[in-house]
Amino acid sequence: MATAMSEKRLIVGDQSLSSKIEDSSTKSKVWPSAPFFSSKLEEQKSRHKQFEDSEYNLEPNVKSSPGALRDIHTILWICQKQYETSDIEELAKIGVLTDQERDWLIAGRDFLWWVRFGLHLLAGRKEDRLTFAYQRELALKFSTTEQRDTKLLVESFMQQYYQHAIAISEVNDIIMQHFRETMHPEKTKASVRINDRFSVCNGYLELSDESVFENTPSALMEMFVVMANNPQIEGVHSKTIRIVRDSLHLINESFRSNKEICALFIKLLKSPFTLVSQLTRMRRYGILGRYIPAFGSVIGQMQHDLFHTYTVDAHTMLVIRNMRRFRYRSAQESYPIAYHCARSIPKVELLYLAGLFHDIGKGSGTDHSIAGSAVAKAFCESHKLSNADTELVCWLVENHLYMSTVSQREDIYDPKVVINFASKVNSEVRLDYLYALTVADINATNPSLWNSWRATLLRHLYLEARKVLRNQSEYQTDRGEMIKAHQERALEKIDGQHAIPKIEDLWSNLGHDVFLRNTAKQIAKLTEDLLSHDLESGPFVEVINLHSPLPGEGATQIHVYDKDKEALFARSVACLAKQQLSIMDASINTNKNGICFDTYTVLNQDGEPIESSSARRAEIKESLIEQLSNANSEFFEARMNSQRVTRQLKEFKTKTKVQVSNTQSSSDLKLRILAADRPGLLAIISRILLEHEYTISTAKIATLGENIEDTFVIQGKSMETPLDKSLMSKLEQQIASKIDQALHL
Fold first, then answer.
1. Residue 192 near residue 201 (C-beta atoms within 8 A)
2. Which residue among 113, 396, 549, 652 is buried most deeply as judged by most CB within 10 Å?
């Protein structure tokens, strides 16, 4: 009620009555300032919580999100109650706002008014959500350049939004903290001196004198080192924050090259407490963007997709926060290898530097890894890091995607792949740094990206590469010998009633993966079950969990053993999609006798292996058997298209890209497909390949936000020689065109 009264306007009626109402609702007669402020502060905290306390939502609410219009309204309502004015210019005149804060509020308010008005026009109704579709339309209308690349326009438009939101949040924080400090002066405690430049009062850092930064510019960096070494300090006093803002002009080339200041920044990275909180403050106060200009360029920069859920600067802070958490004992269970790596590396500050610079090259228009490495090199050299430390940081930045890419796209159970990976990494110390950076990066990119299967792949690659780096001469480099050793151990566990020739004949038709990814006990049981099954009675289906020695890892394997039939793979993946399972990996093997043994590695919707409940596994098994036993293709099509596509997925219409390349085998082709993620897509791809008389022998599946990036090895019926470039290009175009048609793009 008090808020509504402060917003009242006389449109028509008795002016004297309006004045009486206004007089009777002043601060002293209705609701005193202190309780009004406390109520509004709690209301704001509750509202911010609905948006995860972040200005960086992919589809922000321009009215209610942190840094949006309601944050402006809140401080103006409190100012109206305390100073009897909510006019921004007037508040600057009486000293409540600085000139810079006034300019930020007016610029942010005007921008958000424009955006909100545009949203209402486009929607034809009240609409405050800046959805992906509206972002594109507004970005086009907002553009003042000849640039017509929609994605770039949206990213530029949203960077403006986020930068305004950050500025509004900063002013909101300062004003709310100012009121918190002044509303209850009786609770103020005596200041505690830290050194000649700083003291602490009520848990907040203060300057000993307003001219500290002018007299000692290094104090702009020192203040964060002080807080990082004194965890009892809750924050920075509002007056000090304003002085920091007014002192940003001091951060110039001379400041950046000052030996004392450079040493203070490295000292901050080594500090025992609240490193990420201090880097975040440096970012919010404008210091980090001026100290590292390349970082200033990516503040508020987002990527217009569903894969990257944070802006580059927010993502960077999360990466470093994850690195810090890996060192805590609580991470030992959730991230056991990352915990080992983070506590084993000799200089953790180098890991933080790699995290700080790994994405700083985005927006450069070139390979961001290479661009970031160049920025990192200049920074390390100016901060007098040794050649070895500089080289390590630069290598990590340039190769921060390498381990993730190898684990997802290559056959990491092939010794040659592991040896090539280990050769590039070159040392166990580098491997530890790279693993910690990789896991921190994945977890900070998208909350849904990290799952038990990705953890399993990275763990396997890490441990195998470590074996090579420790003693390559003893590492089993022959894939065939490795499979043979696994089979010998499994043979020891198989019931003696099965003849060895029958076992060996069966094994020759199962492919390689089953012997590399399962324990001897699992291989033995599967062998016994397959030998005992009569295919005349129908297909064999088994659902088992992969063995994993560490928590937070693993996946579910589904084995399908059946007579070869048209669209077997398509029917299988359509059925698994209907069961709401995500396919991570697939191995398809068809022997010369027309018998198929296919293995699907799957996770449930939560990114975890299927629960051990026998009822759930039985449901999946029965569903697959029914699907594969039914020859009715219409049944298959209905199942394939039955899942609902989310609004966000529909709004991203990615044209399919296909890349075909020859392999070392004359009968195989490697097929990479980047396409819009849709239910039943794997089945669609399989059917299209069948039309071209190609069958899939292996598949590696990766879902990246609104897109999938799948890699297949395919085989043609009469393909004996590698395809030339013209034939590969023609095949790429045909497959891409048919996928787009099937997806209605």
1. yes
2. 396
